[in-house]
């Protein structure tokens, strides 16, 4: 590592040019509210899909039929169906047309095709994938701690936290509903923060509405301590702060990026380097990170922005910010297929007792195998973390801060740690 060095990063941002039975026994308004709180990035059609008519949600073999009258002659097929069957969203109806679940005089047609007077249209409703979004499923959860107020889980890599497009089932949320049916009465089944699918580690989940409200308040106040272990490419400073706003990448909407306009939310990551080892023509550093804010992909975006992308990251290893030296990536000593990031320590005030509590979870097998293969013998995360806590709690004036103090820990469902 770079000895005796403390670095405060404020990278130059990239400019931004830019009524039925419900689901799972819940009433439609409850499903809508849960979907909104869960942070689904979806428009009205997608929300409608979760509360399509009871027959469709249940997958019942009900056939709907319609004969085209003179007033509808020449109208687009999808628009006609949306007007006559308003209990279904237009996007869902378009999907059914394209999948062959809609027939016009026995023939499959396209959504944009015009209908003719006298055409007979038959619709076979299909169950929406979102219908399982809030259904209990036997998803194994590694529970580190549990009482009547909260539980702490150690999420494995590969497990999605809550349902979203492409992952409507098999999530932590589904597992929580299976484990405790009472969780259905809570927004997001008690989830108050998230981890990326391929990020492993600790998460806290509320078991009562009072506890959920209190945990959200602690996140807003930035008193929840979230500590991560990450492996990054290159030689990093001994310690530092990365202070740069994060928002949706204007060039690739599936990514996040450093942005300067109103869409960029103030974001701050503190880090300390535990060890650096040589690897081929380059280096790999093990860093301990503490989040002051909780943006989507925060650690991954921040370290990419300073020229030290995470090892194994399939999304954020690319050319770095102007003025930063690109990281050198070389073959790893063992196979490794995800970002090297683990939420290893979590600390908070218990909502019911007021007691300060903390939990740790060692890296999972795949990440530990990589750490061992890279020979990070000198890294002592536990000792470093205890010493660092004194700084974090206000012992020494150690960190520089810059920018606005707003963050995502505001209960809007957009708080995802890494």
From TrEMBL:
<keyword id="KW-0413">Isomerase</keyword>
<dbReference type="InterPro" id="IPR006145">
    <property type="entry name" value="PsdUridine_synth_RsuA/RluA"/>
</dbReference>
<dbReference type="InterPro" id="IPR020103">
    <property type="entry name" value="PsdUridine_synth_cat_dom_sf"/>
</dbReference>
<comment type="similarity">
    <text>Belongs to the pseudouridine synthase RluA family.</text>
</comment>
<dbReference type="GO" id="GO:0003723">
    <property type="term" value="F:RNA binding"/>
</dbReference>
<dbReference type="Pfam" id="PF00849">
    <property type="entry name" value="PseudoU_synth_2"/>
</dbReference>
<dbReference type="Pfam" id="PF01479">
    <property type="entry name" value="S4"/>
</dbReference>
<feature type="region of interest" description="Disordered">
    <location>
        <begin position="1"/>
        <end position="27"/>
    </location>
</feature>
<feature type="domain" description="RNA-binding S4">
    <location>
        <begin position="75"/>
        <end position="140"/>
    </location>
</feature>
<dbReference type="InterPro" id="IPR036986">
    <property type="entry name" value="S4_RNA-bd_sf"/>
</dbReference>
<feature type="region of interest" description="Disordered">
    <location>
        <begin position="394"/>
        <end position="418"/>
    </location>
</feature>
<dbReference type="InterPro" id="IPR002942">
    <property type="entry name" value="S4_RNA-bd"/>
</dbReference>
<dbReference type="GO" id="GO:0160140">
    <property type="term" value="F:23S rRNA pseudouridine(1911/1915/1917) synthase activity"/>
</dbReference>
<dbReference type="GO" id="GO:0000455">
    <property type="term" value="P:enzyme-directed rRNA pseudouridine synthesis"/>
</dbReference>
<dbReference type="InterPro" id="IPR006225">
    <property type="entry name" value="PsdUridine_synth_RluC/D"/>
</dbReference>
<dbReference type="GO" id="GO:0016829">
    <property type="term" value="F:lyase activity"/>
</dbReference>
<dbReference type="InterPro" id="IPR050188">
    <property type="entry name" value="RluA_PseudoU_synthase"/>
</dbReference>
<keyword id="KW-0694">RNA-binding</keyword>
<protein>
    <recommendedName>
        <fullName>Ribosomal large subunit pseudouridine synthase D</fullName>
        <ecNumber>5.4.99.23</ecNumber>
    </recommendedName>
</protein>
<feature type="active site">
    <location>
        <position position="196"/>
    </location>
</feature>
<keyword id="KW-0456">Lyase</keyword>
<feature type="compositionally biased region" description="Acidic residues">
    <location>
        <begin position="402"/>
        <end position="418"/>
    </location>
</feature>
<dbReference type="InterPro" id="IPR006224">
    <property type="entry name" value="PsdUridine_synth_RluA-like_CS"/>
</dbReference>
């Amino acid at each position: 590592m770079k000895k005796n060095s403390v670095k405060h990063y404020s990278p130059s941002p990239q400019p931004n040019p830019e009524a039925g039975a419900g689901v799972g026994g819940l009433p439609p308004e409850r499903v809508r509210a849960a979907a909104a709180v869960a942070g689904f990035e979806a428009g009205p059609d997608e929300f409608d899909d979760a509360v399509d008519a009871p027959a469709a949600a249940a997958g019942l073999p009900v056939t709907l039929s319609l004969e085209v009258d003179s007033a509808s002659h020449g109208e687009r097929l999808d628009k006609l169906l949306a007007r006559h069957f308003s209990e279904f969203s237009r996007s869902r109806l378009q999907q059914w047309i394209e999948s062959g679940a809609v027939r016009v005089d026995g023939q499959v047609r396209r959504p944009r095709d015009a209908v003719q007077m006298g055409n007979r249209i038959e619709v076979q409703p299909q169950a929406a994938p979102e219908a399982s979004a809030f259904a209990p499923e036997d998803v194994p959860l590694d529970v580190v701690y549990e009482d009547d107020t909260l539980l702490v889980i150690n999420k494995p890599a590969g497990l999605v936290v809550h349902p979203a497009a492409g992952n409507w089932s098999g999530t932590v949320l589904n597992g929580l509903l299976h484990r405790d049916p009472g969780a259905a009465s809570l927004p997001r089944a008690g989830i108050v923060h998230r981890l990326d699918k391929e990020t492993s580690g600790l998460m806290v989940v509320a078991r009562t509405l009072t506890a959920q409200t209190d945990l959200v308040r602690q996140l807003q106040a930035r008193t929840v301590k979230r500590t991560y272990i990450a492996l990054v490419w290159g030689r990093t400073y001994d310690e530092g702060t990365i202070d740069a706003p994060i928002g949706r990448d204007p060039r690739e909407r599936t990514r996040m990026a450093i942005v300067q306009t109103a869409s960029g939310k103030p974001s701050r990551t503190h880090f300390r380097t535990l060890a650096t080892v040589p690897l081929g023509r380059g280096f790999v550093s093990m860093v301990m990170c503490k989040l002051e804010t909780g943006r989507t992909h925060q650690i991954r975006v921040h370290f990419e922005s300073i020229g030290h992308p995470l090892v194994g990251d399939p999304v954020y290893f690319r050319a770095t910010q102007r003025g930063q030296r690109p990281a050198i990536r070389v073959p790893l000593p063992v196979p490794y297929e995800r970002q090297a990031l683990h939420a290893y320590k979590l600390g908070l005030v218990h909502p019911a007792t007021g007691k300060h509590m903390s939990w740790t979870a060692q890296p999972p097998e795949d990440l530990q195998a990589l750490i061992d293969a890279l020979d990070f013998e000198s890294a002592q995360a536990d000792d470093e973390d205890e010493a660092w806590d004194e700084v974090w709690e206000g012992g020494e004036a150690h960190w520089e801060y810059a920018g606005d103090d707003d963050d995502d820990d505001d209960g809007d469902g957009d708080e995802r740690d890494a």
